Amino acid sequence: MTGLYVHIPFCRAKCGYCDFASAPGSGEEMDRYLDALAAESARYDALAGSFSTLYVGGGTPSVLSEARLRRLFGIIEALTGPLEGLAESTFEANPESLDAAKTRLLKAAGISRVSLGLQAAQDRLLKKLGRVAMRQDFLRAFSGLREAGFGNINADLMCGLPGQTEADLRESLELLLGLGPEHVSLYALEVHEGTPFHSAGIKEEPEAAADMYGAAAQALERAGLLRYEISNFAKPGRESLHNLNYWDQGEYLGLGAGAASYLDGVRRANTPVTSDYAAAALAGGEIPLQHSEKLEGRAKKAERVMLGLRKTSGIELPEDIFIEFKPEIGRLLEAGLIERTGGSIRIKPDKLYVSNAVFREFV
Questions:
Q1: pTM here?
Q2: pLDDT higher than 90, residue 17
Q3: How far, in Å, CA of 230 to CA of 359, rounded?
Q4: Which of the following CATH numbers is that of domain 298-362: 3.90.79, 2.50.20, 2.30.29, 1.10.10?
Q5: In principle, which of 113, 130, 318, 363 could form an S-S bond with 15, CB 3.0–4.6 Å?
Q6: How far, in whole angstroms, is CA 154 from its chain's centroid?
Q7: What is the pLDDT of residue 201?
Q8: Confidence of residue 199 (pLDDT cuts 50, 70, 90)
């Protein structure tokens, strides 16, 4: 399986916690960016027809106008063929920019899965986050997706937010579970350098977030959304195929500013500076890279273990990897962080929240 990721860096406003390549953009900037995407994608004609999954992320892809969305899908289909033929095609959207016309367009284009940002059900918290969409906007957009025939919807939910209480989180879960999404991505707030929250001096509250996260995870599983990865819960058969390919160390191509790729053992990411990306792509030159690394030997095996351990089912390892990482695996078993069954290891279910302590052994 090979995945295609396409990054749209534009949004109405930058959220306080966001550290992705994203910013508001003018219509002229959006058109120039689509020109650059077309130029970059043309470089990969040899891969046309080899993709199984698609993920259009951002930023906020739904901020594009209908005409620009049609052009975007034309660029994508030059590589993928008709989207209906893919095993999965996901489109990220924010409620404020997903109207009925765009929803119908997504359906007609062959998008099979939409990821919709909720984050919290309380308008006061959404305003603190810098979100444009409020609670009613989410409800309208979700209802519109159902009316258009979408049967595979993900919703993003956050905990550990500034001023968020356990009662707030329960209310958010009740609202969300009442709608019956097929998939939920649950994230604890992380404050990264370069984000508006970091500049404002907002701090993480890890203990409170851990308690909230545990309670939310239990509520999601009781509702039939089973945890299959550290931050992701799904109804059986609705797991994200595109993301599972990442965690299985599968290959994928990333197009756009800040987009990451893993092809032929090389991990690389385009520059996140949209203007630099567009200028290079349109000039036909090499696109500046944020980083590039050839994974070989022990480093490639270590990454395989780390990615596999993100899944709640864990990873089945060949004997040579067990032998090579015997000291690390032994320490984690002794610490009670992982468990082994035959040739498989996985993080213990009650230790998933401290998974970074496991991953550090393989860095």
A1: 0.93
A2: no
A3: 12
A4: 1.10.10
A5: 130
A6: 11
A7: 67
A8: low
